Amino acid sequence: MKIWFATNNIHKKKELEAILQRRLYMPSEADIPFCPEETGTTFRENALIKAHELKKLINVNDDLVIADDSGLCADALDGRPGVFSARYGETEGKNLTSMQKNFLLLDELQDKPERNARFVCAMVLLFSNERFIIVQETIEGEIVKNRNLMRTGGGFGYDPVFYIPSYGRTLAELSEEEKNMISHRGKAGKAISKILDTEL
C-alpha cells in the first residue's frame, strides 16, 4: 500500500513527508498527468477535488490519497488571495513567480494599517470515494508593510511576507522544525498522522 500526495509541488511534498514521517508518492513519480481543475469556492472543496481525481487516476483500491489546498487570506483584502493563492495575479498566458506574487500582494495592500492575515490548510485523507477525513487548520500572522521587510531563508510561496509577531520573524526565516510545529500544514498534517497511526 502506498500513500499518494495529490500535488506537483515538490516543496509541499518534502514538507509533508517531514511532518508525517512517511514516504509519499507524487503523481509525477508514476508518470501520471495530474492537473485537476480547482473549481471549488473553499479550501475544503478544492482539496476534495484533488483527492478524488488522483484516486481515480491511480486506480488502486488499497492505496491512500492525501490532498491539501492551502492559501493566504488577508483581512484588508477581504480574504484574498484565498483559494486563488497559487494563481494570484495570473491571466491566460501569464504566470507569475512566487516573488512576483509577493510583490503584487504588497502592492495591493499598499499602506493599509490592517495587516492581519492567516494561512489556511484543508487536508483530506481519502480511503475511498465514500470514506474520507478532512482537517482544516490555520496560522495567524501579519503581512509585512513593504518589500524592504520581506525576509527569505527557507520556506516557499508567501512565507517571506508572512510575519509571526510571537517569533519576531517571517515564516521563511523559521527552521524547518519550527515551521512544521506551528504552521497551518504542520497542524493539519499532525492530525492526519494520528489518524494514519490508528489505521495502518
Percent of residues in helices:
25-40%
Number of domains: 1
CATH architecture: Alpha-Beta Complex
Shape: globular
- Please tell me the overall pLDDT: 93
> What is the N-to-C order of secondary-structure elements (H for helix, E for strand)?
EHHEHEEEEHH
CATH topology category name: Maf protein
Percent in strands: 15-25%
Uncertain segments = none
The CA-CA distance between the termini, in Å, is 10 Å
Largest sheet, in brief, is: 6 strands, mixed
* Count of distinct strands: 6
Query: Main sheet: which strands, in order across?
Result: 1-2-3-4-5-6
Count of helix runs: 5
Q: What's the Cα radius of gyration?
A: 17 Å
In CATH's first tier, which class applies? Alpha Beta
Main structural class: alpha+beta
Q: Could you outline the blueprint of secondary structure elements for this entry?
A:
Blueprint lengths: L2 E3 L4 H11 L22 H16 L5 E11 L23 H12 L6 E13 L2 E13 L18 E3 L4 E2 L5 H7 L1 H16 L1
Parallel strand pairs: 1-2
Antiparallel strand pairs: 2-3, 3-4, 4-5, 5-6
Helix pairs in contact: 1-5, 4-5
Tell me what you see in this structure.
This protein has 200 residues and is an alpha+beta fold. It has a single domain (3-199), classed as Alpha-Beta Complex (Maf protein), CATH 3.90.950.10. 31% of the residues lie in helices and 22% in strands. A 6-stranded mixed β-sheet has the order 1-2-3-4-5-6. Strand 3 and strand 4 form a beta hairpin. The radius of gyration is 17 Å and the shape is globular. The N and C termini lie close together (10 Å). The model has no long low-confidence stretch (mean pLDDT 93).
